[in-house]
Write a structure and sequence with these properties.
The protein is 65% helix and 0% strand. By secondary structure, it is mainly α.
Length: 120
């Protein structure tokens, strides 16, 4: 997400907001870690690992955009910003309410994202 990085570097709030909305649209819901994988699942496992890596990157950028990682990001105390993020954050709240945080893949990232959603 080059546009997200450019928006953060330039302090462009509109660009950061649009990038956050785009990323939330690309995110897959939280998932639980598989109990085990067999050798027959290796090609499927490799695909899952690639998708998981991409999702990890998207979550990391989202954390930067909402100011929970790195420096800068959107001001979630601003009423206008919170209003504009209301719909995408509602999607994340639904995911939060629909999943158990026990044995969640990328648990720390999801907890921090949910923290941002709860604070907005």
């Amino acid at each position: 997400m080059l546009r997200a990085r450019q928006a953060m570097d330039s302090g462009d709030a509109s660009g950061m907001l649009q990038a956050a909305i785009d990323i939330i649209g690309l995110l897959a819901p939280p998932r639980h870690l598989p109990a085990s994988c067999s050798e027959a699942d290796m090609s499927e496992q490799a695909k899952q690992e690639l998708r998981a890596g991409q999702q990890t990157c998207l979550r990391g950028i989202l954390l930067e955009l909402v100011g929970l990682q790195g420096s800068g990001g959107l001001d979630l105390t601003d009423d206008g910003t919170r209003k504009l993020l209301q719909v995408p954050f509602h999607r994340l709240r639904l995911w939060k309410d629909g999943c158990s945080s026990v044995n969640l893949a990328a648990e720390r990232q999801w907890q921090r994202i949910f923290q941002a959603v709860d604070s907005a």
